[in-house]
Amino acid sequence: MAEWGYLGEELDGLRQKGLLRQIPWMEGPVGPRVRMGRREVILLCSNDYLGISQSPALAKAAKEAMEKWGCGAPASRSIAGSLGIHRELEEELAQLKGTSSALLFSTGYMANIGLLTTLLREGDLILSDELNHASIVDGCRLSRAEVWIYRHRDMDHLAELLRRSNHRRRLIVTDGVFSMEGDIAPLREIKELAGRYDAFVMLDDAHATGVLGREGRGTAEHFGLLGQIEVQMGTLGKALGVMGAFVAGERVLIDYLINRCRPFMYTTSPPPPLVAMSKAALKVMREEGWRRERLWENTRRLREGLQGLGFQVRGETPIIPVLIGDNRLVMEASRRLLELGVFVQGIRPPTVPEGASRLRVSVSASHGDQEIEEALEAFRQVGEELRLI
Ligand SMILES: *Cc1c(COP(=O)(O)O)cnc(C)c1O
């Protein structure tokens, strides 16, 4: 047998820098609280913003779909993997995003890689926000197009780069809600610059779908730009509580992806129960508007509470990053919070820039007043112990 010694050495290196990752195991269903080890703790790092994953409507839909359509779609989408239920979900997703068409992907990671490698050619330019999600970064790396990075939400910088570009085509790509910052892309300004410099806009609405806009239709709805964004990607695994992703846009875009987008073409179709759960989740989202209201009320209370305690808090959405800086200190804070009954994961490089480690707090519609208060009390105690406030 060959020896893996060099991997062990690299892991030791990570450990020494306080960067080793270990998987936190949970032993029960994931709701406002969750069992870790022998204890129930408040869960404050889930992306299930509307608390939809636990809705009985989803389990019911999955069971019914299993009986009607079977457990698996036994091929890729363009062979024998497209069932009526896939078409129904795609039609609903197009409607949600105000476009003529939509296409399902297995995951958002695959959708982003697929889009960025398929839509642009050598001689084209991708303009990407420096804090875009890792799947966009990887899509840029794999694309044949040139990639220029603009400073986070810096429209002067973006304008300057657009002015300098003499590429054949330009595409501006941005997260709608930034996954580790919790702030919102200035989509109006981006759209305005794109118009002036004849660029396409690609919007990653993973954390905005279900969260932003009066009806939860995402960043475009929030800014009154529904139907005006060339490429909208969204996921079914965050506020919709299931798994999977989609691209919404004009028919020609979707037809092209069906023909040329390898992460769509060469992978097995999502199984019917999963598709049915996404359809049910969309229905819950549409019909239970109180979830989004509650989410934003909880966001306000937790955000203001943490700020009031003196923590350095960023963002403006249900993603509430608490900046700590040091890698070890952030993990120590996370560990102490867990001892006090609150699970918040520490986020370190390479997920965030060097020196910007943080507790990424995220709140859900399913949290009650009691949980918000208990969480704030634990934060106060840890903040004082570790001199963070
Ligand atoms: C989670 C996430 C993705 C990836 O989506 P998955 O469906 O989980 O693969 C892409 N972009 C952003 C901004 C995300 O937060």
Overview of this structure, please?
By secondary structure, this protein is an alpha/beta fold. The chain folds into two domains: 25-53 and 289-385, Aspartate Aminotransferase, domain 1; 55-287, 3-Layer(aba) Sandwich (Aspartate Aminotransferase, domain 2), CATH 3.40.640. Helices cover 42% and strands 16% of the residues. The chain has helices spanning 5-16, 56-69, 84-97, 108-118, 134-142, 155-164, 187-196, 219-222, 251-260, 262-265, 272-287, 290-309, 327-339, 369-385; strands at residues 33-36, 39-43, 101-105, 125-129, 146-150, 170-175, 200-204, 231-235, 245-249, 319-325, 342-343, 346-347, 357-362. The mean pLDDT is 97.
Based on CA atoms alone, the radius of gyration comes out at 21 Å
| CATH topology term of the largest domain | Aspartate Aminotransferase, domain 2
Largest sheet features: 7 strands, mixed
CATH class category of the largest domain: Alpha Beta
How much of the sequence lies in strands comes to 15-25%
Distance N to C terminus: 52 Å
Count the E strands: 13
CATH superfamily of the largest domain: Type I PLP-dependent aspartate aminotransferase-like (Major domain)
Give the topology string: H per helix, E per strand.
HEEHHEHEHEHEHEHEEHHHHEHEEEH
Query: Low-confidence segments, ≥5 residues, pLDDT <50?
Result: none
Any idea what the CATH architecture of the largest domain is?
3-Layer(aba) Sandwich
Shape annotation: globular
Can you count the helices? 14
Total domain count: 2
How confident is the prediction overall: mean pLDDT? 97
Please give the share of residues in helix. Answer: 40-55%
Widest sheet: strand ordering: 3-9-8-7-6-4-5
Q: What structural class do the secondary elements suggest?
A: alpha/beta
Q: What ions, cofactors and ligands are bound?
A: pyridoxal-5'-phosphate
